[in-house]
Every structure is written in structure tokens, then in C-alpha cells.
Amino acid sequence: MGSEVTYPRRVVVTGAASGIGKATALLLRERGSEVVAVDVNEEGLADAAAAGAETVACDLARAEERARLQEAAGEIDGLVNAAGIIRVVAVPEVTDEDWDSILAVNVKALFFLARDFGMRMPAGAGIVNLSSVAGKNNASTEALVYGSSKAAVLAITRGLAHYLGPRGVRVNAVLPGITDTAMQDKFLAEAGPLRGLTPEALHEQRLKSVPLQNRGCSPREMADAIAFLLSSAAGYVTGQALAVDGGLVMY
């Protein structure tokens, strides 16, 4: 018989106030991990706290706040970089501030957390970075900057997999497709009018492009994929980009 699958002893999950980050924090608690749930939205961390997670409210775009998180978290053997922001803006209207805000959270904070925690993690530890199918196809041009930031996440994931591999620390990325989150609702509400569509019509249009039953994904399904990559079952997996998207992107 094979060995029992194990999960990290102690995991930091960013973006844990909602969506995929919240679902991941709750799932890892169910599977026995100590969880440090992190988000700029302190009130949104209530469900994670009720499930027994420790909570840290901080702005990960700020270096001093990342340092405070590292001190509060202590020794960990798992990290999920799920914090992210999106801005829905027509390409001609994109500003420097749009770039700076999105990259500060989606790229800069993710890199420094993965690097700094990763250099302290023991062999067998795992890091999962949240990218997006937009990081490959960037087809929704109203979110071009967001998609570009998610492409950068893939490069960071591969680079840190090389850098941390000799330590025995694995670094992988998950690429969510159409997922039922507040971020998706925001995209639909703001991109729909730019395309002359209602949010509902845009959602139906997007679902038709998904080969697997023309459906979206729940945050819980996404959390299952993240938990797998953190687990001992993925002990020989690093530097990979796992698309969990119903076949939306197949390369």
C-alpha cells in the first residue's frame, strides 16, 4: 500500500478573505494544517478565524507589512500566494497607476513572499502561486494589465523553482479559469458594458468556450488542486503551471 498523503504542518494563505484564498484556507484547516490566513480585509477573515486559523490583516504591497507577516507566521512549510487584484479598463484608458497598483500586489508582493519564506522553509515544503489562464492567453483585453501580471507569476514560479529546488522546496502555479468568485463578478459587471453586454450575457458567452460541460469552477474545486500541489502526493512536482479551467487553455 502507498504512503498516506500528508499536508503541510503550517501554511500561510494570502487573499484568504474571499474566493480561492478563503476556500483554500478552510480546506487546509479541514485537512489538519495550521493556517495563517492573510488579507488586507480584516473583516473578511472572520470565517477563517472561526475555522481555527490565525489571522493577519496587512497590505502585502508594503515591505514593512510583509516583514510583519513573516514575523507573525514563524516557521512554515507551506505558502499559498492567492492575494490579487484586478482592474477592468479599456486599453486606451490604462494609466501608470493601474500598472503600479496591480503589479505591486500580483507580482512584487508575490515574489518577495515566495522568495523570503522559501529561503526559510525546510526540505519538502511547497509554495503555490495563483496565476490565471489570462497569463497565457490574455484574451480579455479589458484586463490586459491583470493578465500581464499573471504571466509574470509564471516566470517567477519557474525561476524560484530553480532557485529553491536545491533546498528541496517546490514552487508551482495554479491557473484558474472561470471561477465563481467576487473577482469574477467584478470583471463581469465592469467588462460587460465595455462590450455592450449585460454581465449575465457575458458570463454565458464565456462559459460556451469551456470544453468541459460549458461550466465554471467553484473555489472549493480550485482549493483541491492547490492542496494537491502542497501535499506529499506532489512531492516530485515543481516549476509547473497547472491550469484548472475545464480545458479552456490546453497548452
Total strands: the figure is 7
User: SSE order in H/E notation?
Assistant: EHEHEHEHEHHEHHHE
**What is the 3D shape?**
globular
Quote the distance from N terminus to C terminus.
34 Å
Q: In CATH's first tier, which class applies?
A: Alpha Beta
How does CATH name the architecture?
Answer: 3-Layer(aba) Sandwich
Which percent range describes the beta-strand content?
5-15%
Calculate the mean pLDDT score and round it: 97
Task: Please provide a written account of the structure.
By secondary structure, this protein is of the alpha/beta class. It has one domain (10-241): Rossmann fold, CATH 3.40.50. It contains nine helices and seven strands, in the order βαβαβαβαβααβαααβ. It has helices at 19-30, 46-50, 63-73, 96-118, 134-137, 144-164, 182-194, 199-207, 219-230; strands at 10-14, 34-39, 54-57, 78-81, 126-130, 170-176, 241-244. The protein has a seven-stranded parallel β-sheet with strand order 3-2-1-4-5-6-7, sandwiched between helices. The protein is globular and about 50 Å long.
In short:
It contains nine helices and seven strands. It has 251 residues and is an alpha/beta fold. The protein starts with 9 loop residues before the first strand and ends in a 7-residue tail after the last strand.
